[in-house]
Amino acid sequence: MISKKIFALLLFEFVVLNCYTEFRSVAQLLPEEEVRALETISSKLQNRYWNVSRSSCSSGGLNGTIAGGFISNVTCDCTFSDNSVCHVTRILLKEFNLTGVLPEEFSNLSYLLELDLSRNYISGSIPATFGRLNLTTLKPHQRFDSPEIGDIATLEELILEDNQLGGTLHQNLGSLRRLRRL
């Protein structure tokens, strides 16, 4: 038989080890390439509201309300690598008065599912590199006119409100087989 002292010591070690694994703190960080992409996007669109860092997902550095009540919302999924790695999955920058050309660096956010840039002053067409994203929802900028939209095969919702469309829509919209809402 095991002596009471040895049993008590083993029990104590078991409890301590379980508490350590239960209460350990795991940093939830963005990969460097996503940080660089967000910094570049923010710079190109003259977005002065983001404070981008590797810990932005857990520190709230990308979310907030600006003057006029408009909300910057960047959603991250932090369930990767035992809850220690985050990836940007949703970006909402509606009515931020952003300007500049639509940055192709959005396509470096490979986990991005939803992008809302509506009611801004962004110019340019959808970059061809957007075709490699798994976007399910896209609310593009004003003056939207881009044949490359048909390359985003995963697109389920394409919201074109408040756009200055004229003429006919591009034929390649017909290649969006998953599109449920236009």
Automatic annotation (TrEMBL):
What does the UniProt entry say about where the protein is found?
Membrane
Quote a single Gene Ontology cellular component term.
membrane
Gene3D superfamilies reported in the protein's UniProt record: Ribonuclease Inhibitor
Q: How does it sit in the membrane?
A: Single-pass type I membrane protein
Q: Signal sequence span per UniProt? A: 1-21
> Superkingdom of the source?
Eukaryota
**Keywords per UniProt:** Signal
Annotated PANTHER family:
LEUCINE-RICH REPEAT-CONTAINING PROTEIN DDB_G0281931-RELATED (PTHR48006), PROTEIN KINASE DOMAIN-CONTAINING PROTEIN (PTHR48006:SF60)
Report the protein name in the record: Uncharacterized protein
